[in-house]
Amino acid sequence: MVTSVILILIAASAYPGGSLADKNSTGFDWSKNFLSNLFATKAINGSENPGWIWALIGMAFLSVGNGIFFIHMSKKISSGIWTAIFKLIGAGNLLFIFLIATPLHDLGTIAIPLTLIGLFIVTVFVLMSKLHLFKFCCIICLVTYYCFFFVYGFGYMSWAIILQKVYNISSMLLILGLEYFTKKEDFVRVKDQENSIV
Questions:
Q1: Number of domains comprising the chain
Q2: 1-16: per-residue pLDDT in tens?
Q3: pLDDT for residue 51 is more than 50
Q4: What residue numbers bound the domain in which 83 lies?
Q5: In this structure, is residue 198 part of a structural domain?
Q6: SS3 131
Q7: Between vectors from CA 142 to CA 85 and to CA 93, what angle results, nearest 5°?
Q8: For 104-132, how does the pLDDT look when each residue is reduced to its tens digit (9 = 90+)?
Q9: Separation of alpha carbons 29 and 23, rounded Å
Q10: Is residue 195 helix, strand or coil?
């Protein structure tokens, strides 16, 4: 994921210019350009975009990172059907996140609700655990996703552009935190609770 961020930053620095607000603007403006602008071979201003290849490779790393995370979570939260669901979401992310950076962008956006469903399920398990800091982080992450969908759905593009970066950063930080700072034992109590209910 860190590699993905570095490659996206390289792509952004190479982006010639143009945004929804101003087709003649210069460079990539983080508050005016969607990340998807980086994936086109031609920039909005009509110039060749030399950074698209870096963005494409960056998305490949991101898709692998997200996919591996959910597959690892299926081992940490090994709880019946949820294990299979996490593996399915992980496999889906491996494919669909990468497609966002290709001409199949619209199909690739399936990764967004897939990731959101996965993070929602993770949040439920985290809320039942003793991982108090991660409880807060999970809720903040989900709120940023929902806020993005709200403002995008109602056509507030200037806000949507900013919130796109916010939800990407918050989900990446959450994923990295859960990957490296949680272990299977953190969710044992959750599984015991489930068994007692059954």
A1: 1
A2: 999 999 999 999 999 9
A3: yes
A4: 2-193
A5: no
A6: coil
A7: 40
A8: 988 998 998 999 999 999 999 999 999 99
A9: 12
A10: helix
